[in-house]
Amino acid sequence: MISKTKKGVAFLFHFPPRVCGIATYTTDLINAIASKFEESYRLIPIPIVDNNTSQDDGPLGKLDILNPLSFDNILQNILCDLDIKLICVEHEFGLFLGQEAKFISFLSDLNAAQLATVVTFHTVLPAPDRTMLEHVSAIAYHCSQIIVMTQGSADILIHNYKIPTSKITVIAHGTHLAPAKDKHAILEYFNLVGKKVLSTFGLLGPSKSIETTLYALPSIIEQNPNVIFLVLGMTHPNLLRSEGESYRNELEAIVDEFGISAHVRFINEFLSTEDLLAYLSITDVYLFTSKDPLQAVSGTFSYALSSGCPIISTPIPHVQEVLKEDMGTIIDFQASDQLAAAVNHILDDELQLSKIHHVNLEKMVKTSWQNVAIAHVYLFELLIDKKGK
């Protein structure tokens, strides 16, 4: 029996984790809060679904964003649960496409009911048009607090959207503390003994620009003939529904064209956190090649850093803010020649590899999920007290 003295916190987000990166993020956040504050909080998932998503109801049902009445039903279920003190919405632009007005009304009703509401922006677009500006302003007006994951995103909200600084909290993307493991045993398990391992992971799609690395591989192989590139992750479900495996097939065609199949391995599955951390523990260089300059944050980049991996990355805002010279290398978008040179430079210097590994592990401790959970709960408590619930 769950104690009624626990404070209820409801999370609205895409679920399960295999749907998208935001779903993975929120699942990790809920698990971290539950682990550290089990005696104080009842954490209630409310899945956000559409007609392409099959998902069982949460304890309070699920929010069907294509059904305006669903907002009203979820609102009533929240209000009927007297333990709920705060609502946390994991937000991505386009998530409530066509239902923006209903979403704003939903936030307004929560505010009127004296429920604290936190909206986490996973993306902050730097050049808003009038519609975007009005939408973000309305969210900020009706919610209690906005969370962003970088200071750069906070600055955009303050200067471009004119959101008051007092309305914004910066909490870094959480990372898993990688446990110490027997690297040789893991290399044996994955049949990679003797290899220099490059890797990238995440739900596969064109925005990841995996071809940037494939085009670089011949030059890398020439200097490091024992290199192997691991592409970890299944194709994004939305892309799979609309285009099938067309992007993966294009990548495999490049591999065949260059004759590098012995140096590329596609792991076409959704990896558990344990398996992902195992792969990252044997990665010599992690490659983040997103070609989207507006991608505010990347969970895959954070996880790789927290595993100590030296990073070669394109300059999305998150990377520019976090990745320093002693942690890896920033290259231009779709710059295969720069990627090849950077990989060869790092792989040829074992001392540098080891140094970067230790620097990254040390620097990322403060962003562990345990610390991120504490930061969230501290904010939750402030907002709940302010509402006087």
Give a structural overview.
There is one protein chain. Helix 7 links the parallel strand 8 and strand 9. It is built from 15 helices and 13 strands. Helix 2 packs parallel to helix 3. The mean pLDDT is 89. The two termini are 23 Å apart. The chain is elongated. With 389 residues, it is α/β, with parallel strands linked by helices. The strands form 2 sheets. It has a 7-stranded parallel sheet, with helices on both faces. A 6-stranded parallel sheet has the order 10-9-8-11-12-13, with helices on both faces. Helices cover 45% and strands 17% of the residues.
Shape, principal axes of CA atoms: elongated
Average pLDDT rating: 89
* Secondary structure tally: strands: 13
Series of secondary-structure elements, N-terminal to C-terminal = EHEEHEHEHEHEHEHEHHEHEHEHEHHH
Helix content: 40-55%
Radius of gyration computed on alpha carbons: 22 Å
> Strand content of the residues, in percent?
15-25%
Main beta sheet: 7 strands, parallel
- Terminal residue distance: 23 Å
Q: In which order are the strands of the major sheet placed?
A: 3-2-1-4-5-6-7
Structural category is alpha/beta
- Residue runs with pLDDT of under 50 for 5 or more positions: none
So how many helices?
Answer: 15
